[in-house]
Design goal:
The complex is a heterodimer of chains A (403) and B (518). Chain A is α/β, with parallel strands linked by helices. Chain A contains 14 helices and 14 strands. In chain A, the strands form 3 sheets. Chain A has an 8-stranded parallel barrel with strand order 5-6-7-8-9-10-11-12, surrounded by 5 helices. The longest helix of chain B is centred in the middle third of the chain and has 17 residues. Chain B folds into 2 domains: 161 residues, Glutaconate Coenzyme A-transferase (3-Layer(aba) Sandwich); 240 residues, 3-Layer(aba) Sandwich (Glutaconate Coenzyme A-transferase). In chain B, the strands form 8 sheets. An 8-stranded mixed sheet of chain B has the order 18-17-16-15-19-22-26-27. In chain B, strand 15, helix 9 and strand 16 form a beta-alpha-beta unit. In chain B, helix 8 packs across helix 9. Classes of the chains: A alpha/beta (403), B alpha/beta (518). At the A-B interface, helix 1 of A face helix 8 and helix 15 of B.
């Protein structure tokens, strides 16, 4: 028998400032059974419940002998379970089985490729305390991030947290998105998210069609394996000069693509220029993204505005993005959400004008006339089309009724 | 210890520190009669005709004041966590070899952890007053010999008037004073704002000592404390740490969830029709309250609505309302930041109040019931809107009542609280300690929705067309229990051992706080 007694795995966070998280250490033993030492801030209220969870997980993983130390700062069960599983798998990397919490079933919104994606809120995949209330701020989408916000040493921990969050957390109608890692690591991320009701997968630093297709194929394989019923859309992010040049190829690479996004921090770094406030340096790239997305019949989504306290700056940035043809923006703080939503909403003035044009068009049609006139001015077909789009948007925002 | 059940269904001790007390009898159920306690009659002939009551040192003054074992010593908490005087006071008392005192502060702060040693060595027998942080924890562990008595600010005034507490010596920290004893809190290096919490002490104590670090020639004006009540004036180098007495500025919370709660409260106040010309409100200095003021201000500006008065504790956000003409007056019980102190000093429309004007149960009316809407916090609320503000879910006593109970008499009482903290649900089946009856609590605003007390059909009607997320308290509770992994276990306490009692504003016993099992 192999001596496992020296194997120790630890995961999670500890220290004075930590809240809603925990630290777990699992020391494998050859004998002595399971010994749990629990120090919890909520021990009086949930100590028994935490013990039950740990013993249930030990049984699930066939763990018979171990010294377990759990320092808890009020972590929710989905976090404790993820931390424990991570610690155990760091001690026993060969362990293949996973521990699934019951799926809460609240996030099954009818999938729609062209649903509103005005705001998508980035949440670091290693910060579970931000997950629970994110949906209350009503973003159109919530991105659980496995990529840039997660340190390389914590990628495994983030996978478990994000998987558990997808199963347990109510996102209150926001689309559940996950940003995977680049290339091979990203493909490996997929098994932790595809079976657990992810709705959109963000593919970072996309530079070619095959990158998208690789993800599409892996998602399809996992969907078959796990009998996943819900649609899963892809959202490639362009973050380099090469990506910009290949934008259309990427946008058109998969029928599962729902949009094309741009990430400006990496793009400006790739160009070797500074990211400025008015963004002159990325005007070409952003226009390219918009045209590529429209050509492929999908949504064009703008980068994040990173000055959280500058809401006026954000307002201007949203207005500019909308004028370029973008339909959404990333955000990194819930305060940005209402500003973004307001910015992408058609104004009352625009709606009134559009209504007049559409009414004039419908009148002309009912007369059998091909010529549309409003206030003695001729209206061209593209103007009518744009007016119709404005009306459609206004209806989606419930600014006007369906008649 | 013998316990009996009161009208709220809570078990309270029959006796408090050897004295038989009246049980809570429901709202307005207890009607006291007879006379109030009377202060000692003084004669001006016994005091220096030149008005100079100056005594060189604290020790000498306490001696002159006749400090003896077993007496009751009072202090106020306007210096908040910057208070150095109270610690110095008990250091001096210890050196004099005096023991077994009852300390009667208007509140205590974490900075008073220093006094634990005097509880341990018997210098202080027990505390009657809000116990914050370390002192509350000490009491919760059953280490304080007497029973703590928790009262609201108004309840403290009443307790003195009812003779429940007779103050032998009041020690009043005064940021500015003259040698006659006139004092205020708006001048000097230790300026703290109003001094109203010390008013009852100055009026009813046998001996009144004013301690200042900023002695000015007579007259010290404004004189919120009248020298005519004062026996002795002492000067020391420093009353405390100005940086902790008032914060430089009070800052808005960045927590998105707290901002969301604040925004919901502001929308509630507007959409329920409370925000009208001439209205009034009170909100504290907590993160949610400050943000609420900021959101409400935007709404008032947008609608062109002006308040008649707002109640402090003042902060720069209230001062901005006053200076921008969005309210006619600030009626202020305490100032939390420098802007509040400055405004109180300079602006005649920023007026000091006291527990007598605002909260006193034995007054012929008080201001609290005139306020249109008050925004308060709580540590727990049960599904019948009963709330707790002193103990945590694990049973530990960690906060004072402050003006919280008194404010429940406002026309509309809003509790603005997160639905859970870490893994601690705030909406529970039964509160650990009852501090405020649910009949007086109208609305609970959380980040997960707003629950209106079914007693307030008028509010529900006013909100019929509102897009605010109105929900039943039980529905929010159920959702949070789901998140936290079920209902929390009850705190583990010794049922037969109370460590403190909570009085209702009328002086009856509302609840008991028990020793925690460690």
């Amino acid at each position: 028998m192999v001596d496992k007694s020296h194997k120790i795995g630890a995961a999670g966070k500890r220290g004075e400032t930590i809240r809603s998280d925990c630290f777990v250490e699992v020391a494998l033993k050859n004998s002595g059974g399971i010994k749990l030492k629990l120090e919890s801030k909520v021990g009086v209220l949930y100590g028994d419940s935490i013990q039950r969870l740990v013993f249930e997980m030990c049984e699930h993983f066939g763990l018979k002998h171990a010294n377990i130390y759990l320092e808890d700062k009020g972590a929710l069960p989905f976090t404790i379970a993820a931390r424990f599983e991570t610690a155990l798998k760091r001690a026993r990397p060969e362990l293949e089985t996973e521990f699934f919490l019951p799926i809460n079933g609240k996030n099954f919104s009818p999938p729609s490729k062209d649903r509103l994606r005005r705001s998508r809120l980035y949440l670091p995949g290693e910060e579970p305390k931000f997950f629970v209330n994110a949906g209350l701020h009503k973003p159109d989408g919530i991105i659980l991030d496995l990529q840039d916000s997660v340190a390389p040493s914590e990628k495994d921990a983030a996978r478990m947290l994000v998987r558990n969050a997808l199963r347990r957390i109510d996102f209150y109608g926001a689309e559940c998105m996950v940003r995977i890692n680049q290339n091979q690591a990203g493909l490996e991320d997929l098994r932790y998210i595809v079976p657990h009701h992810v709705e959109v997968i963000l593919i970072p630093k996309c530079e070619s069609a095959p990158q998208v297709i690789a993800v599409e194929n892996e998602v399809a394989k996992l969907r078959r394996q796990h009998g996943v019923a819900n649609e899963i859309y892809l959202l490639p992010i362009i973050e380099s000069a090469l990506g910009v040049i290949k934008a259309y190829e990427i946008a058109a690479a998969s029928a599962q693509n729902c949009g094309l996004a741009i990430g400006l921090e990496d793009y400006t770094a790739d160009l070797g220029v500074e990211r400025t406030r008015d963004g002159e340096e990325s005007r070409f790239a952003r226009s390219m993204i918009v045209s590529a997305a429209k050509a492929a019949g999908i949504q064009a989504l703008d980068s994040v505005f990173s000055e959280v306290n500058d809401l006026d700056g954000l307002r201007a940035s949203v207005s500019e993005a909308r004028s370029l043809g973008f339909e959404g923006k990333g955000c990194i703080h819930p305060r940005q959400i209402p500003v973004i939503h307001a910015g992408f909403m058609p104004s009352q003035d625009e709606i009134t004008k559009a209504l007049n044009i559409v009414i004039a068009f419908e009148k002309a049609q009912s007369r059998g006339s091909g010529v549309v006139a409003l206030d003695a001015k001729m209206i061209d077909a593209p103007v009518v089309k744009r007016a119709q789009q404005t009306i459609k948007l206004a209806r989606r925002y419930q600014l006007i009724g369906t008649n | 210890m013998k316990f009996v059940e009161n009208k709220a269904g809570r078990l309270v001790p029959l006796e408090v520190n050897g004295e038989r007390r009246v049980l809570y009898q429901g709202l307005g159920g207890f009607r006291p009669h007879g006379d109030k306690a009377r202060p000692r009659i003084a004669t001006c002939a016994d005091y220096p005709a030149d008005g100079n009551k100056f005594v060189p040192g604290l020790r000498e003054t306490l001696k002159k004041a006749g400090l003896k074992n077993g007496m009751t010593i009072s202090t106020h908490h306007h210096l908040r966590n910057g208070d150095a005087l109270t610690n110095l006071l008990f250091d001096t008392i210890k050196k004099m070899g005096i023991r077994n005192l009852r300390w009667f502060p208007s509140a205590s702060f974490p900075g008073h952890e220093h006094l634990l040693r005097y509880l341990q060595d018997g210098t202080i027998h027990h505390i009657e007053g809000s116990m914050n942080g370390p002192l509350g924890r000490y009491a919760s562990q059953g280490k304080m010999p007497g029973l703590g008595v928790l009262r609201s600010h108004g309840g403290r005034y009443r307790a003195v008037q009812d003779g429940n507490v007779h103050i032998d010596i009041a020690v009043i920290a005064a940021p500015a004073a003259d040698a006659f004893g006139n004092a205020n809190g708006v001048q000097g290096q230790s300026a703290c704002g109003p001094l109203g919490f010390a008013l009852v002490d100055s009026e009813y104590a046998d001996q009144v000592i004013v301690v200042t670090d900023h002695l000015v020639p007579f007259p010290c004006v404004p004189w919120q404390i009248h020298g005519n009540h004062v026996d002795y004036v002492v000067k020391i180098d420093s009353l405390g740490d100005p940086g902790k007495i008032v914060s430089g500025t009070t800052e808005l919370t960045k927590s998105p969830d707290r901002l969301l709660i604040a925004e919901y409260v502001a929308r509630f106040v507007e959409e329920a029709g409370i925000m009208q010309n001439g209205f009034s409100f009170q909100a504290g200095a907590g993160g949610i309250s400050l943000a609420f003021v900021a959101y409400l201000k935007e709404k008032m500006k947008a609608q062109g609505v002006k308040a008649r008065f707002v109640r402090g504790g003042s902060t720069k956000y209230l001062v901005q309302l006053l200076e921008e003409g969005l309210t006619d007056y600030i009626l202020d019980g305490q100032a939390f930041d420098e802007a509040g102190v400055r405004s109180l000093r300079e602006n005649p429309r920023h007026v000091s109040t006291s527990p007598f004007t605002s909260y006193n149960y034995h007054g012929k009316g008080n201001f609290a019931s005139l306020v249109d809407v008050v925004v308060l916090g709580a540590t727990q609320v049960d599904v019948h809107f009963n709330a707790n503000v002193v103990t945590h879910s694990d049973g530990y006593l960690l906060h004072g009542i402050g003006g919280w109970q008194d404010c429940l008499f406002s026309k509309c009482v809003v509790l603005a609280i997160p639905s859970f903290r870490d893994r601690i649900p705030i909406i529970v089946d039964e509160v650990a300690t009852l501090c405020g009856p649910g009949e007086l609590i109208d609305v609970v605003v959380t980040e997960r929705g707003i629950a209106v007390n079914p007693r307030r059909q008028d509010l529900l009607k006013a909100l019929a067309k509102s897009s605010l997320p109105l929900r039943a308290l039980t529905e929010i509770q159920k959702e949070v229990y789901g998140l936290c992994g079920g209902a929390p276990a009850k705190p583990r306490v010794k049922k037969n051992r109370a460590i403190a009692v909570v009085e209702w504003v009328d002086g009856t016993l509302l609840d008991a706080i028990h020793q925690v099992v460690t």
